[in-house]
Amino acid sequence: SSLSAARLEGKVAIITGANTGIGKETARDLARRGARVIVACRDIAKAEAAASEIRAETGNQQVTVRKLDLADTKSIREFAGKFLAEEKELHILINNAGVMLCPYSKTADGFEMHLGVNHLGHFLLTFLLLERLKQSAPSRIVNVSSLAHHAGRIRFHDLHGEKRYNRGLAYCHSKLANVLFTRELARRLQGTKVTANALHPGSVQSELVRHSFLMMRLWKIFSFFLKTPWEGAQTSIYCAVAEELESVTGQYFSDCQPAYVSPWGRDDETAKKLWSVSCELLGIQWD
Ligand SMILES: NC(=O)c1ccc[n+]([C@@H]2O[C@H](COP(=O)([O-])OP(=O)(O)OC[C@H]3O[C@@H](n4cnc5c(N)ncnc54)[C@H](O)[C@@H]3O)[C@@H](O)[C@H]2O)c1
């Protein structure tokens, strides 16, 4: 297929949370295709180990690690500032990092952890890098969401779960936010050569469920039925690389095919409101 042949020499890609799981396999694939890959991670030591493994295996020396903690807007700004100073171009941004089932906690800026890392952190990162994506167009933004978005709602009256908190639902809400962000972003990028798509990677063996003893057990027992991280990375790779998606935007994929989005994920009014509320929370003006 066109995907297996596609090469990325001269292309620059950022992948968040690429030291483990789906992100690491995505980084490995893009490196194999010749891209310059920035592994954007919280844990530098783990990320260096992953990057050196990928460099050794693919022979691509252009795989570098940069510190990024999505639970801290200061770290996000520092990451973006350094990147923009060092790199002239950015062709692929894969917003992959994520947390799930966290006990109630807040980011450095006081955002509920799932919303803060999975949505607001990536929202700010994308905002800071968008000019460079436009200058390097054609370019792509890929947001790793989840089937779990179907159970999500945007609870504007209690965004940070202060009145009611359920860690499973908090994850679902943040993944719905990924879908709505993608939708509104794609709408705003109409007429540019920057696309934005979201996806569900499948149910994948990984440590995403690390905060729940029960889920860790279930994931182990049913691991035979789960995708391997490599299989789980295929839809991210498809969205980032496939030639036939060059001008496809605002879509949601699963198993490398368009997939069903929940009614809440197709609501333009909610998407717009989430956009302005996110800007307010982050203290940015993005219009
Ligand atoms: N595994 C699944 O079954 C599944 C299903 C649907 C969606 N997803 C999504 O796929 C994506 C990748 O998950 P995975 O399964 O590879 O899990 P994983 O836990 O292996 O990877 C998540 C990555 O995000 C990073 N991360 C977490 N908090 C961060 C922070 N504050 N700053 C920077 N990085 C941070 C982690 O360090 C890790 O590298 C997530 O967005 C997840 O929601 C996974």
Summarize the structure in short.
The chain contains 9 helices and 8 strands. It has an 8-stranded mixed beta sheet with strand order 3-2-1-4-5-6-7-8, sandwiched between helices.
How does this model look, in words?
It holds the Pfam family adh_short. By secondary structure, the protein is an alpha/beta fold. It has one domain (2-282): NAD(P)-binding Rossmann-like Domain (Rossmann fold, 3-Layer(aba) Sandwich). Helix content is 44%, strand content 13%. An eight-stranded mixed β-sheet has the order 3-2-1-4-5-6-7-8, with helices on both faces. Strand 7 (252-254) and strand 8 form a beta hairpin. The model has no long low-confidence stretch (mean pLDDT 96). The structure holds nicotinamide-adenine-dinucleotide.
Layout of helices and strands, plus pairs?
Blueprint: H1 2-5, E1 12-16, H2 21-32, E2 36-41, H3 44-58, E3 63-67, H4 73-86, E4 92-95, H5 113-135, E5 139-144, H6 167-188, E6 194-200, H7 213-221, H8 229-241, E7 252-254, E8 257-258, H9 268-282
Parallel strand pairs: 1-2, 1-4, 2-3, 4-5, 5-6, 6-7
Antiparallel strand pairs: 7-8
Helix pairs in contact: 2-3, 2-8, 4-5, 5-6, 6-9
Count up the domains: 1
Q: If you average the pLDDT, what whole number results? A: 96
Kindly provide the radius of gyration, computed on alpha-carbon positions and rounded to a whole number of angstroms: 17 Å
Helical region count? 9
Structure characteristics:
binds nicotinamide-adenine-dinucleotide; globular; Rossmann fold; alpha/beta; 287 residues
